[in-house]
Specification:
- With 125 residues, this protein is mainly α.
- Helices cover 33% and strands 6% of the residues.
- The chain has 5 helices and 4 strands, in the order H-E-H-H-E-H-E-E-H.
- The longest helix has 13 residues, at 20-32.
- It is globular and about 35 Å long.
- The structure holds a DNA duplex (13 and 13 nucleotides).
DNA sequence: ACGCTGACTATTA
DNA sequence: CTAATAGCCAGCG
């Protein structure tokens, strides 16, 4: 069973009943559903999971995105302004906008162009 | 165990 | 308009 799901094992799991690993898994899942050439925000994902107030946790979950099995397009996740705030967390920081541009998303000054138009809501998928 | 930090967001000044 | 503050919750010293 638990073969790869341990992706977010970076914390030992807490039986307290708080965020738990489920939240992390959901974040990764939703992030994977982002269509190519589209982007979304941390808050949108958090809200889709019922934790709109915990947008930070989404960002924190992204911390382990690179070690997950199915690659997670974290580059498609930006802040609510469309700014690539997490670009510095990528292997090479330039990788984020590089991938976005490759998918057809224009990036200017670390910010997604026409972000409002390219925005994808997890609930619509 | 306490406190700071952080890939966020909304509100208030 | 911009700047500062509060709320969120998990990880680390």
């Amino acid at each position: 069973m638990p073969s790869r799901k341990s992706a977010e094992k970076l914390k030992t799991v807490r039986p307290s009943g708080t965020a738990d690993e489920n939240f992390f898994s959901l974040v990764y899942e939703v992030t994977r559903q982002i269509p190519r050439g589209r982007v979304t925000s941390y808050g949108a994902i958090a809200a889709a999971l019922g934790a709109k107030s915990s947008a930070r946790m989404v960002g924190w979950a992204m911390n382990g995105c690179h070690r997950i099995k199915p690659k997670v397009p974290a580059h498609r996740v930006v802040n609510r302004n469309g700014m690539l705030t997490g670009k510095f967390h990528f292997d090479p920081p330039e990788r984020m906008e590089e991938l976005l541009k490759k998918e057809g998303v224009k990036v200017k000054n670390d910010q997604v162009v026409e972000f409002k138009k390219l925005f994808w809501d997890p609930g619509e998928g």
